[in-house]
Sequence to fold (377 residues):
Amino acid sequence: MHIAHLSLANYRNIDSAEVALSPGLTIVHGANAQGKSNLLEAVYLLATARSYRAQSERELIAWSAPHRALAMLAAKVRRADGFVDVRVGLQAGEGETVRKQVRVNGVPNRASDLVGVLNAVLFSAEDLDLVYGSPQGRRRYVDVMLSQTSPAYLRALQRYQRVLTQRNALLRNLRDGRAREDELAYWDGALKKEAAVILAARHAAIQLLAPLAAQAFERLAVAGERFVLTYAPTAPTADATTAAALSDAMQHALERTKAQERAMAQTVVGPHRDDIRLTLHGQEMARHASRGQARMGALAMRLAEARFLAERRHDAPVLLLDDILSELDPERRLLVMAETSRYPQTLLTTADLRLVPDAALAGARLLRIAAGRVDPD
Fold:
């Protein structure tokens, strides 16, 4: 798939932009703090219904706009099954509140229904957190990927979070003597039901991702280096694969951690506490990997994500490369651009066109951005 046209209004520092896009490589260049990342962030939001940078959605609406202003984002997307129009409106309310309005082909939709209409994979300088950061970032990596391929997974994830919130509230009430022990049974049943769906999908995804990431790492790094992804659940699942077996494993884990839960007044096992384990030659990368090895590991994970989406959707995603070339040596730049050239559309930002390999630059379309204004170069 590829984006044929992108429209933005009152989005961060971009007052208005109408950008025609084509397949292949598009390079968005300009000095720092001019809006390059904002352009890619807008595409990512249209794909996933959320920003990858903002703490609050109010940040996305231009502060220069009048009170209760509306930021608009829209794209015309060419997919394997034809064209589709996606549109998101962000209506500022009181304080930090924002009302999100979503339309697909002109029809109002929930924000969750937007996910997967446009598939995108984001590569950014912050991807080092996939290796060095907390398990939360690695869980999000898998969750965003699976949500773009399966509405059922996204719904299970949303239901799980709601149940988890209610169960944790009950655990706090139990600690404070304001609830009965037998009230947990209902929430245990609801939690393990949704957990089973999430765990089954994550285990299956890692089985497919692991060899893809290993192959990508070997192409990017040193031949023979063994990069391994494994799923690390807090509720031991052994060889369980069916929903019933995974639900039972979750139940056993909840029973095993009862005392710890009462002491901490929170649910301590489940998909919300799981991790993706990254090792290089059997050693934990978070502890032992050099910055260069971590960078290659993160890139390999993103390339594996792109392959996963392409194979699951039978339609390759749009790649978003946000200022990653400055972090790479010339050889790795060549390798990364060669890998991404396999996809129908790549949007790349850079403050220095000299970082783009000549072969990639020769066939690319250039867009210059300055003070939020986007113009063909």
Observations:
- The domain at 1-119+318-377 is CATH 3.40.50.300 (Rossmann fold).
- The first strand starts at residue 2 and ends at 11.
